[in-house]
Amino acid sequence: MSGTSSQSSRPGLPGFVSLASDGGVAARAAASRPASPLASPPALDGMFGPYGGQYVPEHIKPVLDELAATFERYHADPDFLAELDYYLTRYSGRQTPLFLCANLTARLGGAKIYLKREDLNHLGAHKVNNTIGQILLAKRMGKKKVIAETGAGQHGVATAATAALMGMRCTIHMGAEDMERQKLNVFRMRMMGADVVPAMSGQRTLKEAVDEALAAWLGDAENTFYLLGSAVGPHPYPRMVRHFQSVIGREARAQMLEAEGRLPDCAVACVGGGSNAIGLFADFIGDAGVRLIGVEPAGRGLTYGDHAATLCMGSPGVMHGFHSYMLKDETGEPAAVYSISAGLDYPGVGPEHSHLKDMGRAEYASVTDVEALDAFFVLSRTEGIIPALESSHALAHAMKLAPAMGRDAIILVNLSGRGDKDVAQVEEMVSAGLVTPPTL
Question: Can you give the pLDDT at residue 208?
């Protein structure tokens, strides 16, 4: 969204400003997009080719259908959009800027590297785009309590914040291992009134947090709103999360045209469940000249249990109520996974990413812990920007691509979060001699 339009006297929202696009740069962005069947929104049933669906107990389908109907009723409603715009701008701080990494670009000696600065959102990540949208739906449904899962804690923090903002009770399920890695985010959630429940089963990370959040929600679905954090899960969640995160791509497209007069050659984002990536990709899918590149965690290496590179190494299956690519063990159950980044160690991925992979419209690569940590330090030292470890995966792949591309080429990286939450974890690793910062 760019530009401002008329003031509104909307009750309860003093100084309200609607930020509907004003026909300037954003209109030129839309006009430059070629017609493509891929550019259309996903189907109303939430299917992305063969992927998606609702693989849930029968008594939950009416709850999901009610949510889908609510989303379809309000997602284009002018009053809903006006309230969403108000909170995205006045609460979260949108629009986030596009930043040219001049120092990093000069160091690598190839393509220009631009960052879409989602790390500058309130609370430090893209997650709040989605929690604001979903919490406004929950309010319209009359819900008083929200429940959510979280990995690195950024979705949990965003959910806790928006629940506090709307006066709702909030419970966050988080893997016990991730709670140890992300103590600061756990404290932030509790500061804002959320009850943080450790997931003690399995590997005690994101998959188990989702398992336990879903189980808790299934026990009280009529009274509780499940605020899912990524573009995964049963319909309508992938469709909803895509919609609320697509603000990233809309802004980035218009900003790139304004800055360079053309679109980027590559749009790059990290992929765990895939919400920040599909948010960036959404407005570029119809542009055949823009390579869409998702970057998954290769962890310690691409052997069983050492990574979470679902699209690179997995196969289609059903998990957590939807059909998509997943990593499996020898019995076909969700595999053990690992990443240095708590937000990426998930054995599944959003169904739209699976469809884009099969169609050949998007490509998916993987980056190791070591490569991500190197990018973490390089961006910090060259540009004074500390990236989240999740985002560092995308940056690391961009750093591989740039030197082989011409100086007139452009790489757009979605910096989905800031690294404040990861500093303690990385400092402990450096102090223990497990990580050696690169010499620049």
Answer: 87
| Residue 361 and residue 293 share a domain | yes
What is the C-alpha separation between 377 and 222, in angstroms, rounded?
Answer: 46
Pair 300, 174 in one domain: no
Q: Are residues 150 and 208 in the same domain?
A: yes
pLDDT in tens, 128-164: 999 999 999 999 999 999 999 888 788 999 999 999 9
Question: In the numeric block, which tokens belong to residue 339?
Answer: 């990443």
Domain count, the chain: 2
Helices H / strands E in the chain, number of each: 17, 12
> Rounded to an integer, what distance in angstroms lies between the CA atom of residue 352 and that of residue 240?
12
Tokens 């076909």 label which residue?
A: 332
Q: Are 346 and 273 in contact (CB under 8 A)?
A: yes
Question: Residue 219 belongs to what domain range?
Answer: 48-93+127-241
* Displacement of CA 374 from its chain's centroid (Å): 22
Distance, CA of 293 to CA of 303 (rounded, Å): 22
Using an 8 Å Cβ cutoff, are 272 and 344 in contact?
yes
Mean pLDDT over the full length of the chain: 89
Query: With 0-12 CB in 10 A as exposed, 13-18 as middle and 19+ as buried, what is 432?
Result: exposed
Is the pTM value of this prediction over 0.85? yes
Residue owning tokens 């709307």: 166
User: What residues act catalytically?
Assistant: 101, 126
- For tokens 């390579």, the residue is 291
Q: Per residue, what are the HEC states of 349-403?
A: CCHHHHHHHHHCCEEEEEEEHHHHHHHHHHHHHHHCCCECHHHHHHHHHHHHHHH
Q: What is the largest CA-CA distance in the chain?
A: 60
361: left (phi over 0), alpha (psi -120 to 50) or beta: alpha
Same domain, 215 and 331: no
Amino acid (one-letter) located at 171:
T
Does residue 164 sit in the same domain as residue 254? no
CA pair distance 132, 165, nearest whole angstrom: 10
- The three-state secondary structure class of 46 is coil
348, 361 Cβ separation under 8 angstroms: no
Token pair for 264: 């980027």
Give the residue carrying structure tokens 């609460």. 91
Q: Do 272 and 158 belong together in one domain?
A: no
CA 100 to chain centre: 21
Q: Tell me how far apart the alpha carbons of residues 115 and 292 are, in angstroms, rounded to a whole number.
A: 15
Cβ within 8 Å of residue 377, ≥6 positions away: 437, 438
